[in-house]
Structures are given as structure tokens and as C-alpha cells.
Amino acid sequence: MAWRTLLGQWWHEDPSQPGKGQASDQARAAVPWLLERLALEPAEAHRAAAALILICEAEVDAGGSTAGVHALVRDAAPRLVALLAKLPAETPGASPVRKALAYLIARTSENPRHAADALTPVLGADSRLCQVALTIAESGSTPRLARFVASYLSADIISTAFDDSVDHVLRTLACPACHSRLEVTGTALACNRCSHRYPFQGSVLDLLPADFHGDIEFTEEIVQNYEREARPRFVRVMAADWDGLITAEVEQHYLNQQLQAPEGMVVDLACGAGSRTDMVAKQVGARRVLAVDISLPMLETCSAAVPGIVPVRADAMALPLASASVAAINCSDALQAFPDVGRVLNEVARVLRPGGVLTGFTFVESVSEPVRYVQHRFPAWPRRLLTSGTLTQTIARAGLTVCHLRQLGQGVFFTASRSELQKGAVS
Questions:
Q1: 64: containing domain
Q2: How many domains does the chain have?
Q3: Are residues 155 and 261 in the same domain?
Q4: pTM for the full model?
Q5: Quick one: DSSP state of residue 150?
Q6: pLDDT tens track for 119-151
Q7: What is the DSSP letter of 289?
Q8: From CA 362, how far away is CA 381, in angstroms rounded?
Q9: Which partner from 259, 329, 366, 395 sits 20 to 30 angstroms from 286, CA to CA?
Q10: Crossing angle between the packed helical segments 369-377 and 231-238, to the nearest 10 degrees
């Protein structure tokens, strides 16, 4: 969202000529900063390159292509070539950036020879990307073909950098206090109805309620060891899974079967350090995932581990999401940790749209007294464990219908849905 806000300050589509762009007075001043982002911020390089393309194309649309922004990018060509040479061709994540760099070098070169001298040693003369880029550079001799190829490649780069996921996120997020729509400002998300402001925390959207007071925070040391050591031990003890039946493969298979969300945003609630968020992202696509947790260190780790997701700091009992706005919610290994499970499930039902699904993994209380003892003792803070029967009843009281339940030891995978008939039960 920060990138979309910045882009709005530099460029916009010409309302009188669809397909034409207009650059603002600030656009040229932004070019050096964007060129720096290409090298210094790998996770944002795709968007920085796409923004440069939009600004360059606006200069072309305005009737100039040799001065101004083009000259600045042309002067930076050696840096762009060096950066392009560092990107492995076989890395899928690097592909959009490779395309963008090749496009910028070809589009702003003084002539086809300069473009060939720069790109051929790096991409290889037989490379499809090299051939496409050189066609763009040869606009003087083949203007119609060059324009067609340039339009296709630039559209590919821009649409994947600034797709409609940002708009989906803005439509989905809401003030946790009053559920009103939030507006993007330069430093925060703001609610015009109740005047609350929620400042950006780096890459994390901090949407904790203004009156939230929590005393549990994961330290950096715990977060670093969480996925490798703490979580596997916790699951083994809480589920009494002495035979190791609950594996990552089992969890991924369950999500593949049950987490069905053909469109719309998907929430990974209490995402932790991101191992299960990665599973959700593999199922529905990272750009559709809102990773929600109360811990800032967990969210920062999750965001680094699963590129493309939107990390949101929030209280599960006051979700910063509009009513009936999300397609699905996953909650792995967390239901037992919430202070008020019923209240959390009421929030889940409120934000799920009709037909939306909730998938989850939690633990039920053992009938064996020694096992039940260690379930509540490990780790130190209290757990709120249900039986499989009360789990189903608690979900139903929230206005959801349990449609699948699978128990392995004391671990339970479950799926529930919200139907149109249950809409009134969650108001």
C-alpha cells in the first residue's frame, strides 16, 4: 500500500486518453531513489522497476524520449546491467525484475547497438528476453513491432507489480474500533469516522486497537527458535503425538483439501513465524494472504519468510477487517491460546463472507489425567482446551457449521463454513 501511495504522487493515467500516462513534477526527483531501491531493496525491486517504467513511458507519451527521465536511467545503465548479471535466470522470483531491467536498458538506450552491447553478454544472444529487449530498442527500424512488444512486456511487468491485491486489501481492512473503512496516508492508516490512526511499522500494518494492553510478547530469541524447536516440541506434547503422525506434509495436505477460496483475501490468523502461512500461500497465492498476529517480531519474521503476503498486527478479538469481507481464514495451532475462544470465533464469523470457510488445527483436552496435566503445564501460561464436542458447539454458537473434523491423538483438524442462512447469527 505504501508503494501504491508513492506511485500516486509520481504518476497517474491520463483520464482523457486511456492507456496514456502522466508524470508529476515529483517524478523526475524520485528516479534516483527508485534506482537505489533496485539494488538495496531486493524485495521491492520489482515495484521500483515498474514505477520507473511507468514514469519513462509517461515521458514518451508526452512526446520526449531522449532527455529527462530517460537520460537519468540511461546514465544508470552500467548499474542496471551489473544488477541484471547478478540475477539467476532460473530463479522464478527474479524473472519479473530481469524483465524490467532488460526493458529499461533497451527502452532508454541511445541506439540498438548500445542495447545489444549491454544485454547480449549478460542474457545471451539466443535468450528470448534478449531478443524481445533488442526488438524494443530497434524502434526506429520496426516501430509497429517494437511498440507492440514494448506494450506487452511493460504490461506484464506493471500488472504483476501493481495488481489489484492492494485494492482487495484496502476493501478488506477496517478500523478495529468501529469497522469503518481506512484511508491511506503517508505514515498511517486513518479512520475518518472515529479519528483513530494506525501508523506503519516498517512492512507491518499495526492495527491493534488503541486501548489494547497486552503483556505477552515473543522475544527475538524465541522467534528465531520457534519453528525449528519450540513449535515441534509443543505440538508433540499437546497432541500426545508420540508417533510423529502430525507432520508438515499432513498439515499441507489438509489445507489443500479443505481451504477452498477461489477468489478474495485469505487470512492466516495467529500466523506466528510463517511456516503455516507459507502453506496457505502455496494454496491460494501469497498476494491474497493477510498474515495476522499480535506479535511484531513474529510478523516481521513471517513477512521475511513468505514474500508477498500482507503482515497485519492485530488482536484476534477485534479483527481490523470489514464484515463479510474475506473468503477464508486459517488458524493453525492457536485456538487454544486465545483468552476468549468464543469471542474470537464470533469475529471470524463476522468477517467471513457467506460461503467462506474456516480451517484450523488445535488441541483437545485429554481424558488421561497425566496427559491433561502436561497439556496445561507446557508451556507455563494457561491453555483453554476444549473437548471435540465442545469445540463443535463453540464453533456453532458463533454461527458457523463444522463440515469436517479429523483427530490425530489430541490434535484436531477442523473446517467450518458460514452459510447465507447463518448471516444473522453473527451480527
A1: 2-162
A2: 2
A3: no
A4: 0.69
A5: H
A6: 999 999 999 999 999 999 998 778 888 888 988
A7: E
A8: 16
A9: 395
A10: 150
